[in-house]
Amino acid sequence: MKYMIAMFGSASEMGATKTPEWINEMIAFMIDIDARLRASGEMVYNEGLADGSQAKVVRLENGQPVATDGPFAEAKESIIGFWIVDVASEQRALEICGEIVQWSEVVELRPVPAGPPEQ
Amino acid sequence: MTSERAVVDLLRQLAPQVVGMLARRHGQWDLAEDATQEALLAASTQWPHDGIPDNPRAWLLAVASRRFIDAVRSESARRERQNAVAALEVRGDVPDHDDSLTLLYLCCHPALSVPSQLALTLRAVGGLTTAEIAKAFLVPEATMAQRISRAKQQIRAAGTVFEPPPDAELGERLAVVLQVLYLIFNEGYTPGSRTAESGADLTDEAIRITRMLRAGLPSNGEAAGLLALMLLTDARRPARERADGMLVPLADQDRSLWTTPLIAEGVELLDATLGAGPVGPYQLQAAIAALHDEAATADGTDWPQILALYTVLEQVSPGPVVTLNRAVAVAMVDGPRAGLALLGTIAGEPGIAHTHRFDVVRGHLLELAGDTAAAAEAYGAAMRGTVSVAERRYLALKVARIAATSRDF
Question: The complex's ipTM?
């Protein structure tokens, strides 16, 4: 079963509020969990993203696509990284989320459907 | 059994020669490149078991020729123009002419986008497979195959023939080639790039192709300068990242980890080049890299000499990025406030202000000047601006260290 695990947070807040030791441990954890998911064959794909302040939102206004900064420019939390994993069960996916959330404010888990819904 | 590594090295070295010979003989360099790629794949499965043939270049040329003729035949069949095939025949003789440089110019054609130039150069000149290139750039193989075939179509549409650029354009075209090779090098050198897992090491490939370029243009100072710059930079690679993936800045690197033979080769190349002809930006950057590499400790760095070289570089090839680097040298020679003053002169330039590079340098100089609050603010801005996860982590740690120190007071 495929899931997307999305991690939310803000790099700018982290530097100001956490200790260097915490950040070092967080980095070690991120490198370690990526290595473990790869070794177990559960990792499909993962990326860390640029800070939310770099985001643009595209909306349709009067039929024309219009790109604007944000709305995350000032937001404390926006998506900062994601994993696509292929795991045996939702329980296993939740277990991975449980590890990640120790180092992230919020983690969101979403199933990635394997195919079109049955008729 | 022959080692797979030896086979791969040999194939990558021969690839551009085979494409060049086929293209010279039959034209249609894009078909020649496809045929060569097939011959390389055949060799990479056969040679490790059967051993390397006596004349590997002739072997590849014969196989590639057959594939080429098959491809032309099937195309002709579709067009019902059989006589085109009559002119084709497989010949065993191997001409001496090496068209590798012509091929390199073609792959770095100015009509192509930068990602296309990089991909095509690695495949046609570097002899890498599409799968290897896709892995190195972290895109699916089909995406990379599409990028390469689009690039070939664009070159065809530009009406380009398989010949070296005319003399009048040579300087301009060589500048693009050097830039493409340097970008390939940097792609591999960028922190957090996952080349270790990808099999093909872009840094090594860039050095290999630049060696080939330098051999083809032995009297060109910039080709030698670029090669020296790559060697002198690559020498520091073992020290620039900790085992846990954390970046180590130049000043904090364990210099005993640097690769001494690469430094020696780079310095020797540079000594033979500087003063022999007009000095260009790659030679100057190589000379700066050499001064860093030759310093036994960070404190022992010859900053006045580095500053002098940046001043020349700014005259030869002016731009905000050069000024940014010169500001660091100014700070090391005349103090951080002098460096910050120079930064102030480019703060309004749209190409550089509000880039994370600018904020990193500003933060560094403010930290040296003891203005920790402003330094943390600048590092924070850099952290939000960078798209490299490894760099963001490094900067987060910088901000946290400054915050922790100021809490202690």
Answer: 0.71
